[in-house]
Amino acid sequence: MKSAIVLAAMLLSTSLFAHHRTKLKTSYTTVLLAYNIPMNQVCIDGDEMRTKDLRKVCTEYRRIGNRDRDRRECVKHEYKYFSKPLQFEKKVCVKTRRRGRDRDDVCVKWEMRTINLPLEYTKTVTKHRWEGSRRDGDWSMFGKLISKEVFPVPYCN
């Protein structure tokens, strides 16, 4: 039960962290890979996508230092699979407006959307070259597409 609460808290905090950046056009890699997990390290297990390997998760922290220089140290950890349903509902921003002194984008309209994680991913290989003047510091990088491959997300064993 304790581990389920920790996993739910991690998923919620990660979801909230990336929530303000998530818009309707967000790719599934941004939604799924909040833990920076590459697509070749996930698999399909029933109706959810999960990591192939167990990941180390801290479940208990110890506070070190005084209040001004406070830091946390992990004293207890567990190994878990990170997972996400293949189809889920998410509240996404559909309209923004610039507000405030810094003219930051603020969401003014939210909608619930059904997100379906794709069962394949595309890997592109490009050859890059630089052009420009070293004296001016005006450098640009150009890429030439060499190959593009589509890989299905495998099923877990």
Distance between the termini: 25 Å
Helix coverage percent: 10-25%
- Backbone shape: extended
Number of strands: 9
The number of domains: 1
Residue-averaged pLDDT: 76
Structural class: mainly beta
Number of continuous helical runs: 2
Sheet with the most strands: spatial strand order: 1-2-5
Rg over CA atoms: 21 Å
Strand content: over 45%
Largest sheet: number of strands, sense, barrel closure:
3 strands, antiparallel
In N-to-C order, the SSE pattern is HHEEEEEEEEE
Q: Low-confidence parts lasting 5 or more residues at pLDDT below 50?
A: 12-33
Account of the 3D structure:
There is one protein chain. The chain has helices spanning 2-19, 28-32; strands at residues 42-45, 48-51, 55-64, 71-80, 83-85, 87-99, 104-116, 120-133, 138-152. The chain has one domain. Residues 12-33 have low confidence and may be disordered. Helix content is 15%, strand content 55%. The longest helix is centred in the first third of the chain and has 18 residues, at 2-19. The protein starts with a helix and ends in a 5-residue tail after the last strand. It is mainly β and 157 residues long.
Outline the secondary-structure elements.
Blueprint: H1 2-19, H2 28-32, E1 42-45, E2 48-51, E3 55-64, E4 71-80, E5 83-85, E6 87-99, E7 104-116, E8 120-133, E9 138-152
Antiparallel strand pairs: 1-2, 2-5, 3-4, 6-7, 8-9
